[in-house]
């Protein structure tokens, strides 16, 4: 296969139920999009039939690939794995629940043409759409966490945790090898690394639909804040290699 324009990386842990619809939706859009592409599902040691389903769907979803990990690595680890295995000029990771549909990537392309290196989807900026919102008890810890993240790590970025982020090939190949946070807080670290390396970041409002069956537990918010402290310490200790 010739070098694709877009690589879509989907981290998947026990996604046998939600993944088929997401892959069919992506196939429908991408097959008519007018540019070359690949879809890479990275199975994160699932206990269900995620890997088997992806293998079966390769027969009718074009350019679909599977990276199959026997052991659970963490979302950050498998996103990095997919990013570094991808071949695309632009590399997007998108959540398996399809909360942000693939067509939203069209909003990103003009900013890459303007010279941005990292374009991220956001639920909290102008032009974002949230037709189905999270219940308040889930929004509150996220909003509080975002304030701390902006104060300690990435000032000016309103939504670090939306699972829809795209990178140029150069940015991906320089950022992801340095990832030290393997689980929920990795989104913060990749943005910290992008800034330290001088890459231009653009935050773009996207259409995001809350999945009531979300697998993000309340404990994940505590984990993110713990990892935020680790990232802050990494910055102070100058652990990241900036070339």
Describe the structure.
By secondary structure, this protein is an alpha/beta fold. The protein has one domain: Spore Coat Polysaccharide Biosynthesis Protein SpsA, Chain A (Alpha-Beta Complex). 37% of the residues lie in helices and 20% in strands. It has 8 helices and 9 strands. It has helices at 19-30, 50-57, 75-85, 109-113, 136-152, 169-175, 186-196, 218-236; strands spanning 6-12, 37-44, 64-69, 90-94, 118-122, 129-132, 164-168, 201-205, 207-209. Strands 3-2-1-4-7-5-8 form a 7-stranded mixed sheet, with helices on both faces. Strand 2 (37-44), helix 2 and strand 3 form a beta-alpha-beta unit. Helix 5 packs parallel to helix 8 and helix 7 runs parallel beside helix 8. The longest helix is centred in the C-terminal third of the chain and has 19 residues, at 218-236. The two termini are 32 Å apart. The mean pLDDT is 89.
């Amino acid at each position: 296969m010739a070098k694709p324009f877009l690589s879509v990386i989907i981290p998947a842990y026990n996604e046998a139920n939600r993944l088929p619809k997401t892959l069919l939706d992506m196939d429908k859009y991408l097959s008519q999009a007018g540019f070359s592409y690949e879809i890479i599902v990275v199975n994160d040691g699932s206990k269900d039939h995620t890997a088997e389903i992806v293998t079966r769907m390769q027969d009718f979803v074009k350019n679909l690939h599977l990276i199959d990990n026997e052991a659970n690595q963490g979302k950050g680890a498998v996103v990095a794995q997919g990013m570094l295995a991808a071949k695309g000029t632009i590399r997007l990771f998108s959540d398996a629940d399809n909360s942000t549909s693939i067509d939203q990537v069209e909003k990103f392309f003009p900013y890459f043409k303007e010279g941005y290196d990292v374009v991220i989807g956001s639920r909290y900026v102008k032009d974002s759409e949230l037709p189905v919102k999270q219940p308040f008890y889930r929004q509150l810890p996220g909003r509080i966490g975002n304030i701390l993240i902006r104060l300690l790590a990435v000032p000016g970025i309103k939504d670090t945790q939306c699972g829809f982020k795209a990178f140029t090939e150069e940015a991906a190949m320089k950022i992801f090898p340095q990832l030290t946070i393997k689980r929920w807080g990795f989104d913060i670290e990749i943005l910290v690394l992008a800034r330290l390396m001088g890459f231009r970041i653009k935050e773009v409002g996207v259409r995001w639909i809350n999945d009531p069956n979300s697998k993000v537990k309340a404990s994940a918010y505590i984990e993110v804040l713990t990892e935020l402290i680790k990232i802050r310490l990494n910055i102070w200790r100058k652990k990241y290699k900036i070339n």
